[in-house]
Amino acid sequence: MNAYVGTPTSRIDGRAKVTGAAKYAGEFSADGLVHGFVVEATIPRGRIVRLDATEALKVAGVLEVLTHAHRPPLADKDEAWKDEVAPEGLPFRPLYDDMIKFNGQPIALVVAEEWETAKFAATLVRIDYEQDGFATDLEAERGRASEMDKPHKPRGDAKAALAAAALRHEADYLVPTEHHNPMELYATTTVWEGGGKLTVYDKTQGVQNVQKFLCAVFDKKPEEIRVLSPYVGGAFGSGLRPQYQVVLATLAALALKRSVRVVLTRQQMYGLGYRPMTIEHVALGARPDGTLDAISHEAIAVTSRYEDFSRNDTGWAEQLYKSSNSHFSHKLVDLDVSTPCDMRAPGAASGVCALECAMDELAVALKLDPIELRLKCYSDRDQSEGLPYTSKQLRQCYARGGEAFGWARRNPAPRSMREGKELVGWGMATGVWEALQMPVAVRIVLTANGHAEVSCAASDIGTGTYTIVAQVAADALGLPIENISVRLADSTLPQAPVEGGSWMAASSAHAVLGAAEEIRRELVHLAKAIPGSPLADLDAAAVTLVDGMIAGNGKSGAAVSIPDAMRHSKLERIEKEKLNQFAEDKSHARNTHSAVFAEVKIDEELGVIRVTRVVSAVAAGRILNTKTGRSQIMGGVVWGIGMALHEETVMDHRFGRIMNANIAEYHIPVNADIRDIDVIFVDEPDDRINRLGIKGLGEIGIVGVPAAIANAVYHATGKRIRRFPITLDKLLD
Amino acid sequence: MNNFQYSRAGDVADAIRLLAADPGAKLIAGGTNLIDLMKENVERPSRLIDISRLPLRDIEETADGGLRIGALVPNSDLAYHPLINQRYPLLASAILAGASAQLRNMASVGGNLMQRTRCPYFYDTATPCNKRRPGTGCSALDGLNRNHAILGTSKSCIATNPSDMSVALAALGALVHIAGPMGARSVALTDFHRLPDDKPNLDTILGRSEIITAIELPPHSFPRNYSYLKIRDRLSYAFALVSVAAAIELEGNAISEARLALGGVAHKPWRSMEAEAALRGQAATPDHFGHAADLLLQGATPRAHNGFKIALARRAVVRALIQAASATPQSQAHKKIA
Amino acid sequence: MADITDQIPERIPINLVVNGARRTLEVMPWTTLLDALRDRLDLTGTKKGCDHGQCGACTVLVEGRRVNSCLTLAVMKDGAEVTTIEGLVKDGALHPLQQAFIDHDAFQCGYCTPGQICSAAGLLAEGRARDADEIRELMSGNLCRCGAYPNIVAAIEQAMSRS
Predict the structure, then answer these.
(1) Among positive and negative, which fits the CA dihedral A476, A477, A481, A486?
(2) Residue at which a domain ends, from A580, A604, A627
């Protein structure tokens, strides 16, 4: 194999996307489709005393107003509401009871013949609340933080080592609340198929997760609910858990026995998950030569009152930097807000940002080059478990990234580089993420005309799963990629977990290999069965699929075409499904790494920051598709720029309301903010991690980028900004 | 969005009649701000009067050598018009600093003057706001006010006017031509927008049944020494934290005429005759520019989060004047600030 | 509540020429061009990303000019010529911008893509962008959360050089 894997193959879903043919969740239609519009709470905590829909129901075209007091049954058992990635706690249940748990909570669904009617009528629903005292401010409530989980066991005595250290750096870094803001609005179209059956088009990263969840919540049999998300307009973690609109659309469909679409507004999307505001406290103790004696990293993060969401913010130093003493803690403060959720590189994006800013500060204090310090502390083992890595080419990332960036030409003194009225800053940081893999099943249907359909329940959220599945299948089946069609994101297809954590590339690719191997065996068997087959004497293992042929290895030239083999046995199709499970191997740590270099130019007087260059050198095993892979890293860099300079969900704690719940004032980078981004894939052969040596790319692209930019800002200005985002007012004296 | 009736005005007089007949009616041209606010339930007109087809799309020279711009000229057409480019490049630059290419294609000149504040409390119907609901209080005073006004504020409102175009028009001394039931009148652009005082619900002096018909630019056009410098939280498609329209005329190195206006700092484009007078007759030096900036910012009062705007505005004024004096105006596409 | 149920306006018949075909439909005064295209004409290629003119996903060409269809009332465009992403394909052949977006991998999730391409088509017709910085600035009304901006600029440069 290897005609497509590793090449810059264009997306196979490209034509559908550039022509507008690709249909997203809120774009499927059905006979008699009606529209639901959500009414949301405007207080953060309390109780609904009265909810009066009389005026709304008078509007011509309004069919129904569903509320906690007026709706079909919803499951009462807590377990029914726990999806496969739910955190500890009691999940939120939309329209379940009169309790208000967060501002923006859905409290009614107005259903009308037309969307505009529902939207208008929603403004006529009158609600009286009994408001309770509430708290939404993490910094004010910091004292209530309680220890959740220790991501890594402490080693040695970090406290004592810090106290004794020749040089100590200790600081708080603050990462604000951020929202995913995928371009597609959260949407569900639930199609009433009759007989109690429902087809649900949902904006989700996991159709089977949603399907199981809906069956539990609505007490349905598995065959009664089918969930699809053939195209997902960005998700970044926001679609890992079932979003409340899928419950509401389905609830309304059951109530009305009609097909219902519910699309949230951009503002309403802020009532769902987000990256939690986190105070990251990092303390480093070092010797003058840069040897680390102690690392301490504590995170204090927001969660809701009803669920404990926590991720691994701290502990990444265990992967990166040698230290004989270490201490990690993760604390939560429960507030009157909705539960946070995973957002691109959850934990690492925030935690490594703090760690890498702290390392930069330590390098400055030690008068060491930031790369030199990192190489001095470079860890060839995951210290938490004392394990070697399946592969770790981070040294190469530093070397190749630094070379491409021109790091050697950097004058280390802050404020030493300038161009006209602009200060120039060069900063760098390390990125790290996990190389995870999960069980995935794939079905391949090969037809005698040499076409294959590959199917799996996995979602492609823009990450390129359609394309890599086709590439791996084309290589494994020896067919041109044009002969491969891929079906994804249908709950009736073979099993897949939610699409997230950077695990889908390795997981789906190996599942394709497994199913393709079954096809190959069958074809060899068929080919050998042909009277006088040129393959008759060959060992099955010595026969591969190549160029549409079932061919003996080597130069024998013995081959049978796939159509001949199948037609001889009067087979029109061969169907094979295989679940791939990776053998458990706890002998090695599995991680991806990166070295990120950023150049900023900052107007000295006005504080305007331009990120003019970023080089991201990534070690992530074998890259299945260098074209889409490069795009993924580039996108991660853009996210990192946003995290460094722009993104912040702002709340008025007097009201417990988000005051920039839109995408005009919640800034994400626009085209003009993004200049040169150079992506380098460092060669990282890895024959231990999995057969193809794949590690995944979805998260690693963002990790380290915000710190590299913050460090560049320091280098340019001499100002260390520890509260993100770094807006220009923070640079003005 | 509320339910409303729709009428199409046949001519200006018709528009005025329709306005007068329905106290809840509003005019719509480009709709870029009004539709947005209607979708937020901030604006709830009983009737929209479509004026987009009225013949107010000409740009013509006036007898005194100025230009008269029809109120319905799209922002982009104005910015790219040869006469504007050659003679009033400050205006072109300011327009191109605002919004996006799409919005500029839609938005009319008259509508741009009518755009309302981006104050988040004004937009959020769940919070008190005197501008949206008089008498409910101003949430920004002691709330999130990083992007609020530092000049001309009142106890009722510290909102800013978000327009870029208006800042340049203020500097250029533009006139606003208005038609109404009582006939036509014209006011200086600097008098068109109001300070909030105790009636922040009123952004402008436009009467209920009046319509903007044209903007007039006086002959003084500052074709060479000008700059529109907009400072914002990202490099494009964001509202100003502070913006400066600067225009001067030089005789040698001496300033013979000067115009300065600030955006993002007040309920209206902020001009100071005193600051401009202080520049006249002076050498074009950073010191003199700084002095003018201080005069322009006289009385600036910070709230909890917007104190940075005072220093930022001062520096931006100086920089914009340096750019103007050296005939190197700020490019809106090339983001380096020379 | 003067603005509720007592005075529901009549539906207003309008004509649009959408992608070259004359379409007659009845709309309410508040129906936006975006909702008319997506919900009435089933042209779902035009996307709704914010419904407030903040993201550009709804960009279409009206009389050849790029506009945000979410802030455009359909009734106000009676008689207008509208081009959507579906109308850029001619006789099955992709528009040069569509091909360039594929060639340069100028999208990931694809949701902003129709708006980006229509906006880029408007940009080319305007003829104001002469270098990459000007493309970046004049395409800044189209957000891409996947962060494909450098590839979008490269794709537009390709289409520009070939047109």
Answers:
(1) negative
(2) A580
